[in-house]
Write a structure and sequence with these properties.
The protein has 19 helices and 15 strands. It is an alpha/beta fold. The structure holds nicotinamide-adenine-dinucleotide (NAD) and zinc ion (ZN).
């Protein structure tokens, strides 16, 4: 079974009235892929509406057209979001084409909800409520062949990225590697432990794992811990035996909304953070919100800074909702952007909102400043330079970032060395409006420096 839609079509299946035609185009836009409806392809080819084909040529002929159209569409490139009709999975040929070319998500609905949506629509199979309910029951088992199921757009995006909400106890990995502190706190049975936090992201720890692992190429490594653990174990998985599967089980808020999603993995060098790494998408990310119960206040605040960042990028007050909903919304946002830009060549840059300032302050503090506090300050500067005073106040109220005591010239020099600085031009992610990020190099260096200085005590 496919684990995610990174290198395949995303196929939407489900009973009529589940909302496929409404969600499909929205999903396609979010993932930057074309939307293709198999029904529409049949209509183009026959020159008749689906209802007319049913009526004039009969269901069997419609199904033949549907099978051919599905096979053609699934063989096409670029990868798309493909909507199939409610009965398409009845065909063995279509099921085989989906297995070969798509990650298939069942968009779930109830028979009553579906009837409410489609009765009176004139659809050939939605004219009589009893027959409709009977057909719903008859088709229900067909959808079990889907790779995942979902009830809303965030659910589909999460499934497409391989992100699932489940208990960490259900982790099915050949070898489990965990942050030593997390393993102890949560009584996790492990094959290997790694030092807690950032100390895990070293070449020495990677080498330890490479040398101690005894698994073969069919193995799946499980990584339980914060972003440091998932970055390290993901990197070891990317390199061991030229690449094996891995499952990320993030145990921090940062991990659940950010680090364990999107496939960037790596380690630090004495010369700098994340200097050696790879893109190696986890076959699954298992989010278990109960792991967060033991998180320290400081680690929670680190995560909250990324939550506020996501809320600003989305233009929604995500910081006001409960933790579970926060994690789900932010994880889905990151999953969508990373599916759209898996190799960080474009849109993914917007995830760096506030981070150019944050990295400069972290460097100037000799990395004693926490990432969360640095990001909170960076978001403040980004909102101010975007001319969004209300949002700057939200950052102040929710994250309360106090100015930090670092050397101003050192911070400014670090900012100019940022990897987003191209040919001496400072490129910043700013917000046209909340929910409308963009990369700009039009801000005068003097104003950038002024914004940076305002963050320093
Ligand atoms: N790959 C990516 O896309 C990406 C994105 C963001 C951050 N990162 C990386 O993630 C790292 C930071 O990760 P992080 O902030 O998740 O923290 P972390 O992994 O560094 O852990 C921080 C501390 O929290 C503890 N901890 C972890 N889970 C806990 C729990 N459930 N209960 C109690 N304590 C717990 C750890 O033992 C450690 O002491 C950085 O190295 C950063 O570069 C990567
Ligand atoms: Zn960050």
């Amino acid at each position: 079974m496919a684990a995610h839609a990174l290198d395949r079509h995303l196929a939407l299946v489900g009973f009529m009235g589940a909302g496929k035609s409404t969600l499909g185009p929205l999903l396609a836009e979010r993932l930057g892929r074309p939307f293709i409806s198999v029904d529409e392809v049949v209509e183009e080819r026959t020159g008749e509406s689906v209802a007319e084909v049913f009526e004039r040529r009969g269901e069997a002929e419609f199904r033949r057209h549907e099978e051919d159209a599905a096979a053609d569409v699934l063989a096409r490139r670029p990868l798309g979001v493909v909507e199939l009709g409610g009965g398409a999975l009845g065909s063995e040929r279509t099921r085989a084409a989906l297995t070969a070319h798509a990650f298939t998500v069942h968009l779930e609905t109830s028979p009553d909800e579906a009837w409410e949506r489609v009765s009176g629509s004139g659809r050939p199979l939605a004219r009589d409520p009893d027959a409709f309910h009977a057909l719903f029951e008859e088709r229900r088992p067909l959808y079990d062949s889907a790779d995942a199921s979902a009830t809303d757009i965030d659910g589909v995006v999460l499934a497409a990225a391989g992100v699932h909400f489940a208990s960490h106890r259900e982790l099915a990995a050949t070898a489990v590697i965990a942050d030593a502190h997390v393993a102890e706190l949560h009584g996790i049975e492990v094959t290997h432990t790694v030092p807690r936090g950032e100390a895990a992201k070293t070449l020495a720890e990677a080498e330890q794992l490479w040398r101690r692992l005894t698994v073969d190429r069919t193995a799946t490594l499980g990584a339980v811990g914060g972003g440091s653990t998932t970055d390290l174990v993901g990197f070891v998985s990317a390199t061991y035996l030229r690449g094996i599967d891995w499952i990320a089980v993030p145990s921090t808020l940062v991990g659940q909304v950010d680090a364990a999603i999107g496939g960037k993995v790596g380690i630090d060098l004495p010369e700098g953070k994340n200097l050696v790494g790879a893109f190696h998408w986890p076959s699954r990310t298992v989010i278990d919100p109960t792991l967060l119960e033991t998180l320290s206040e400081e680690e929670r605040r680190n995560g909250l800074a990324e939550v506020v960042k996501t809320g600003l990028l989305l233009g929604e007050p995500v910081w006001e909702i409960g933790t579970y909903a926060q994690v789900r919304t932010c994880a889905a946002y990151k999953a969508g952007i990373c599916l759209r830009d898996p190799f960080d060549l474009g849109d993914r840059a917007q995830l760096n909102l506030g981070h150019t300032f944050a990295h400069a302050l972290e460097a100037a503090s000799g990395y004693t400043l926490s990432h969360g506090r640095a990001v909170a300050l960076g978001l403040l500067a980004a909102c101010r330079l975007s001319g969004l005073e209300d949002e700057a106040r939200v950052v102040e109220n929710v994250l309360g970032p106090d100015p930090v005591a670092v050397d101003r010239d050192t911070a400014w020099a670090a900012l100019q060395r940022d990897k987003k600085v191209v040919g001496g031009e400072i490129r910043l992610v700013l917000l046209e409006l909340p929910g409308r990020p963009g990369v700009t190099s039009e801000i005068e260096p003097a104003r950038v420096r002024e914004a940076l200085d305002a963050l320093i005590a």
